[in-house]
Design goal:
Length: 211
């Protein structure tokens, strides 16, 4: 392992993060429905027939666990699961949304945000390895935005993206989301300074942990 690799590994250790680290998270939001997903994509909402087509592609998520988690979320009635699948093929991608969210804690920066009325949060995007590189993640974001605003009457749809995830930052912009705030947390020897820069004055979230 190179010297840079060793230092990066050390910097990610929880004890080091608590003592000395800088983390930033971008909040993106949309307040118009946008164009939605392409008409030829079979995007569905809370469809267990799609969910059951899930194929395990990573060691930490089995098919059984994914299906059980989806069933639990749908039974709770707070989360929407958007899915896309090929005809008679596997689940190609999914993304989650929480309409009428009241609050979210972003663990990356350790900050708690209170949302304005009629806000939906986007999270949990995944694309099957065989479908990556074709804009499917962006299409699923567009589908969620359009459904949440045009069909469910949400005022805002919000997505949090860590500053180091360049692909996710680009995808958010392509999906029609725009920057509305930047959360930053600096930890030094056990003390933390949390700040929030409001980029869009119309975005009425409350950043309760920010100095």
């Amino acid at each position: 392992m190179s010297g840079d690799g060793i230092l990066s590994k050390i910097a990610r250790q929880p004890a080091v993060v608590r003592l000395w680290s800088d983390h930033a998270l971008h909040l993106f939001a949309a307040d118009t429905p946008g164009i939605g997903a392409p008409a030829d994509l079979d995007v569905r909402v809370n469809d267990m027939n799609h969910v059951r087509r899930f194929e395990q592609t990573v060691s930490w998520q089995t098919r059984e666990d994914f299906i059980a988690a989806a069933e639990r979320r749908l039974a709770e009635g707070k989360t929407l699961l958007f899915t896309v699948a090929a005809a008679d093929g596997p689940l190609l991608g999914y993304g989650l949304a929480h309409p009428n969210a009241e609050e979210t804690t972003y663990t990356h920066v350790g900050q708690h945000v209170l949302w304005p009325e009629r806000t939906a949060t986007l999270y949990g995007g995944y694309v099957h390895p065989m479908a990556r590189g074709h804009g499917l993640h962006t299409a699923l974001q567009r589908a969620r935005i359009r459904h949440l605003i045009a069909d469910l009457g949400m005022r805002w749809t919000v997505s949090g993206v860590v500053s180091t995830n360049l692909a996710a930052l680009a995808s958010a912009r392509k999906a029609g989301l725009r920057p509305v705030a930047l959360l930053h947390t600096r930890r030094r020897l056990g003390t933390a300074r949390m700040t929030a820069e409001r980029i869009d004055p119309a975005f009425g979230a409350r950043f309760v942990d920010a100095a």
